[in-house]
Amino acid sequence: MPERSANGPVRGPAAGTPGDRVPLSNRAIDPDGLVWTRVSPRHVTVTVLSGLAGTVFWLAVVGWPAVLAGTGIWSGAPLGWLLLPPAAVLVVGVLSVLLAPRRVRAIGYAERGEDLLVRRGLLYQRVTVIPYGRMQYVDVSVSPLQRSFGLATVKLHTAAVGSHAEIPGVEHAEASRLRERLTARGEALLAGL
């Protein structure tokens, strides 16, 4: 059963399960004592499948000249030079797929009294603070791939023009809860309650 600490963050029972509240540590950008809620581990599979589909698409886009040269239909450039773009796409795609689990583990969010924090990023880490009173609306979107894994993306639109933050890989029930809770908190702070 989750426990509420003296500071207010909820701590989940075990690491690695959906909705866990676990410490993601980076002292440079993380507030002290904050406990992050991670996204679902199933988001790794969605990210890997999306990365593979993107890699196959870009291989087809940049690889057709090499295929034409390899079959003898086109002899405009040496085959070795024509293989460089597909090789680069393949390297980037493989790296993206290999780093997907770590990228997903770096995503987290934390609800505080006056604001919501969203954390993401591996190499370039970022924490976005969204005051509840500045939220214009909360949008939940589900792609066909996410739907098949029971996941959604929560998008938070703020009063700043074109400004928004998103939390991908949230389970459907948690996405609905976040939408209702964040909307209610935003309306309450906007009304001055």
UniProtKB/TrEMBL annotation:
Keywords: Membrane, Transmembrane, Transmembrane helix. The chain crosses the membrane at residues 44-67, 79-100. Pfam families: bPH_2. Residues 1-26 are annotated as: Disordered. The keyword Membrane applies. Residues 105-182 form the YdbS-like PH domain. InterPro entries: YdbS-like_PH. This is YdbS-like PH domain-containing protein.
